[in-house]
Amino acid sequence: xxxxxxxxxxALKYSIPHLGKCMQKxxxxxxxxxxxxxxxxxxxxCHLTKCLQNKPKISELARNIPSRSFSCKDFLPIIQENKKPxxxxxxxxxxxxxxxxxxxxxxxxxxxxxxxHGGFVYYQExxxxxxxxxxxxxxxxxxxxxNLEELKLxxxxxxxxxxxxxxxxxxAKIRTEDSEASTCIIVKLSDQPVMEASFxxxxxxxxxxxxxEEDVLFYTFxxxxxxxxxxxxxxxxxKRNERFYTxxxxxxxxxxxxxxxxxxxxxxxxxxxxxxxxxxxxxxPWDPPxxxxxxxxxxxxYVEHRDDELYILTNVGExxxxxxxxxxxxxxxxxxxxxxNCPFQLCSPIRPPKYYTYKFAEGKLFEETGHEDPIxxxxxxxxxxxxxxxxxxxxxTVFHKTDSEDLQKKPLLVHVYGAYGMDLKMNFRxxxxxxxxxxxxxxxxxxxxxxxxxxxxxADGRLTKKLHGLADLEACIKTLHGQGFSQPSLTTLxxxxxxxxxxxxxxxxxxxxxxxxxxxxxxxxxxxxxxxTTLPLTLEELEEWGNPSSDEKxxxxxxxxxxxxxxxxxxxxxxxxxxxxxxxxxxxKGIVNYTEKLKEAVAEYAKDTGEGYQAPSIILDIQPGxxxxxxxxxxxxxAQIKFLYEELGLDSTSVFENLKKYLKF
Length: 665
Hints:
Elements (H helix, E strand, L loop, with lengths): L1 H9 L9 H4 L18 E2 L4 H6 L4 H5 L24 H15 L13 E3 L2 E6 L2 E6 L9 E5 L8 E8 L5 E8 L2 E10 L5 E7 L1 E8 L5 E9 L2 E9 L5 E7 L6 E6 L5 E7 L4 E7 L8 E4 L7 E6 L2 E6 L15 E4 L7 E8 L2 E9 L4 E4 L7 H4 E9 L5 E9 L10 E5 L13 H8 L3 E5 L9 H5 L6 H17 L8 E6 L2 H11 L6 E5 L5 H5 L7 H8 L6 H10 L12 E7 L7 H22 L8 E6 L10 H15 L4 H7 L6
Parallel strand pairs: 26-27, 26-28, 28-29, 29-30, 30-31
Antiparallel strand pairs: 1-19, 2-3, 3-4, 4-5, 6-7, 7-8, 8-9, 10-11, 11-12, 12-13, 14-15, 15-16, 16-17, 18-19, 20-21, 21-22, 22-23, 24-25, 25-27
Helix pairs in contact: 7-16, 9-10
């Protein structure tokens, strides 16, 4: 949702009724598209005038192919009529842009997610799904709908809530912190709420209501991290559960999204580079779905609806720029069923979110007021660039205390990702805040392979261009040192998941730049993983890493940078690796093999070097459970910070005292 908000605000400037006619002759690039795909989808900028002159009515659009079976054929024909000019939307957009760029900075507390529907608020209280009247949401006066302990799960929590249109039912997806598996429960709302059904392994789900006022639940079923099947179910006296669609291409997955005004349910079928969207009429869910645009390799798009217009966001054409305030690095969309408002948050790694609401009817941006956050005065945010090996300028975002003296003697924590066209995560993290308060420098390196500078930025760091990301990371760290930010003996590096590829490669090729490294669920054995097609995600990942099983060029290129393949007896920085016992995305076996091989290389080098050599610490911390990355694990956070302070010989007393302000131990 974080990236959806960014693009939905962009869509306030333009709307496009039909994608196919606007994109067929455009040059296309590759990009990544999953939960973070929205960061790569850019609003179509050219040829908009022609599109906007002739927009179809949604009623005509939705019923244009009544006899079509659910298949991937042809473009959707449209009936056209004139609409209002573009200038009004542009004026409103510019006002929002101006207000965002000039906002003062104030502090806001982070609150738990909740769903408002009708006159109630639905949320989790303790181990229960509850609801309370909207005006009583801050009190303890709530109604218990379901006790999660009935599922007999270890520390369950509610991941997602959806309320049926007429509030006869509520659906909730339940998970545990140590697993990606989930259960969707359906609770009938009455004087005595009761769980009427439950479905295992549900990924996305949405409610619609048919012509006979019957609630229909659409949901996707996930098997081995792959989501290919869509089901629809009804409850009560007319109970049924049927498979509605199956995606046969194993490189694609499916997820559901209900437009903000609940008018259409969209079935989104996509892989790393291509998408296809079908519309289900929210008023006639039993009618055949309507295809917006058949899948075209390299074309990604996403559909929203408001006031009888489709807003289509696509990666075709140049992006529309939307500048955030200088301090803001993250954009988070708040879930809301109110089509009249668009609530969102701005944040950075070291300051909590600031809340905004855009009101469509008034064309104005509103902000919640609060007290000024001290971090806005005690820290600095710098935007720097490093020149990579081939001359490409690589952006960096740097944070440090305003009153820090002699920055060359301060510890530095560098962050990197550089894969799948995804932006480097820069949402608020309390442990990053306390590090800056304790004098650390934080640097975020937006290397090629990520998505910060668009589709080409991703394309220049994938497949047989992966080494660009490594060169970028090396250039960033050298530039930081050259500009007086820390030094190698005080420099640490952190990454998670696919970011481990670049970190592991740098440790092999230029370990003297670093003192210590922390990795979480890192991808370290690229070659063997991509040659094992029995793993759940191998087929989906081919367009990012290549196919070493059938392409010798890809195989030889992966061998050049793969962290596991290039371990050798030499000095290495100390390393703390967090892995998860049943992680299906990055199997534990590959991480264990990497760690054992690294320890052997370190021991061999220490033996050859002789007495006096201080070998690095290589720590593998295996956590129970099957989740991929647990961001809020207090145990993980404290272990990583403790490791960094010990390796750099720093006193950690004050940092842990400050951390207690944010985390409950």
